[in-house]
Amino acid sequence: MAEELERSVLVGRLTRPISGLMATTYRWVDERLGVTDLVHQLLYEAVPRRGAWAYSLGSATLILIVLQIVTGMFLLWTYVPSTTEAWLSLNFIEHHDEFAAIVRGMHLWGAYILFVVIGLHMVRTFVSGSYKKPRELNWIVGVVLFLLVLGLGITGAMLPWDQAAYWTATVVTHVVDYFPIFGTQLQEILRGGPQMGPATLTRFFAIHIWLLPALLVPLIGLHLILLRRHGEHGSWVNYEGVEEETEAERAERMARAEAPYPALPSDPGYAVPMDLDDFFPSQVFKDALVSFGLVLLIFIMAIVIGAPIERAANPAALNYVPTPEWFFLPLDQLLVQFPQAWMIPVGVFILPGIGTTLLILVPFLDRTPGRQPWRRPEVMVPALFVLLFLIFEAMLAVNRLFNL
Amino acid sequence: MSRRRFMIMGINAAGAATGLLIAAPIVGDILSPVFYKSKQPWVMVADIRHVPVGVPTAYVVMLNDSGDAWQVPAVPRTVYVVKANLSNAVQLITLSNVCTHMQCDVHWDVNLQVFLCPCHGGLYSMIGTNIGGPPPQPLFRYQHKLVGTTLYVRNVLTEGQ
Ligand code: HEM
Ligand code: HEM
Ligand code: FES
User: How much is the pTM?
Assistant: First the structure.
């Protein structure tokens, strides 16, 4: 009860009006908008106490996506989505507009760090078995979010329309040509004609700044609604000893559960973490520090290295060696390993398709009871192999491209 | 039929019809590139007398293809003109340098005497046949014609053998 009081004081302090006129104004708005209630709802939550730094990865992903959206909006201040002017506009930024160059650098490095962080968030939720009952949909929505972010990365890489962008776009749009029966038509739809041209760029521009974000943002909303509905699962460190618990102890723990727990339907013992903490300020404090560190890193990279721009796209250049974005290296390597007509679709559709399907099905394939990774070798070992395979493929690709 | 039931059916029907009105032109918009018609004009390449026998020679041509929407200026593309000495007769071949694997630009490597693709290491012979790497087909050939000694090509591709 005392704790309860302290919490509302903390949250109250956030929404406490400062002086006379501001107090009156705040009250006027609050009566109509319900700000205080809203802040309460958003912040007044229980979360697992132990391992909380690892649970900052989700909010860091969120902050980095917001960063992408904001920097992206201001890239549009200058960027012209046209084959004749895209390169000119970015080249102008790079040579004549230092601040825009930092914004552009932050968009590029923000994307790079985002891939690392979203990857770690996936690994974290996988290792802690967070996808288990009742959080299967958290995971499935997550996989879709991951695919959308990959799509944003690859469509973004096409926009500068320099040599790197042009050949990335060429290869990506030609891959679909190997699709059975409709391949050629699919390629024409993606390119806006039989060949790479002005309509190719406008299409991918529209996909990058509108289509994919319009899908991404509401799905993040759904991911967070699911999170709030079931509460943060955390990891096995929050459930040590649940298997030795007596029925009575468990029942007591369930009865003491604070919102949003108990998470049901759940495996016995896993509905409520052993030890709870306040989302605000305990978790938010960690989230804020982690996100600050990442944005600082992005800022520094944007200033120190920035975003490169190569020569303008030239379909006739003979001495250019195209290299894919680093996060697409494993897929590029599959293009080499599955040569010749009938094998190419295996590398570009069948294997990645099987991989994605398995990823989506993870919550239903993992039938193990516990949460500790070492007690779930049936899923941990294959997952480790997949991860090592992807790293190995990327290394093979780097080796190949360096030896050329 | 009850009043409520009627209204619910009305909502569904109006909703579906509205959706259709919006979706139909958008789907058509997405599919329309499949039905674009393109023109392939002849473009001049070079005087054929300047091309040495046995050395694939690169020429940049403006292969303007109206299938490329509103392309201005024309896209430069490379045509490799090859005078190949095949069974004692010199054959003229105009090769596209677009790799048949994922469409990167291949180039003639003088040391190795092959067409090399930088993307995944595809290799082709002087006349475009496959020697190694992932490409599934020989290099395509542009249609060509000679007017006197002037070589013209156009963006109509034939399969190499
Ligand atoms: C746009 C990208 C994403 C955003 C903004 C996001 C955001 C979040 C946030 C804020 C949390 C709660 C804090 C935490 O546990 O880290 C969370 C939890 C979770 N996320 Fe994500 N996420 C994203 C992508 C993914 C992906 C790619 C996956 C997996 C394939 C995933 C699966 C999960 C799961 C299973 C949880 C529940 C964790 C638990 O309860 O222990 N998310 N997400
Ligand atoms: C998760 C979200 C996003 C990711 C991962 C992402 C990623 C990228 C990447 C990797 C590039 C290429 C940068 C380069 O090579 O220089 C790029 C470019 C660009 N993006 Fe995004 N982006 C995202 C969201 C957005 C949004 C929402 C907008 C617009 C509102 C936007 C606008 C742009 C523009 C205009 C460019 C071209 C300028 C340039 O290349 O520097 N992006 N994006
Ligand atoms: S594009 Fe030429 S080998 Fe792959």
Answer: 0.93
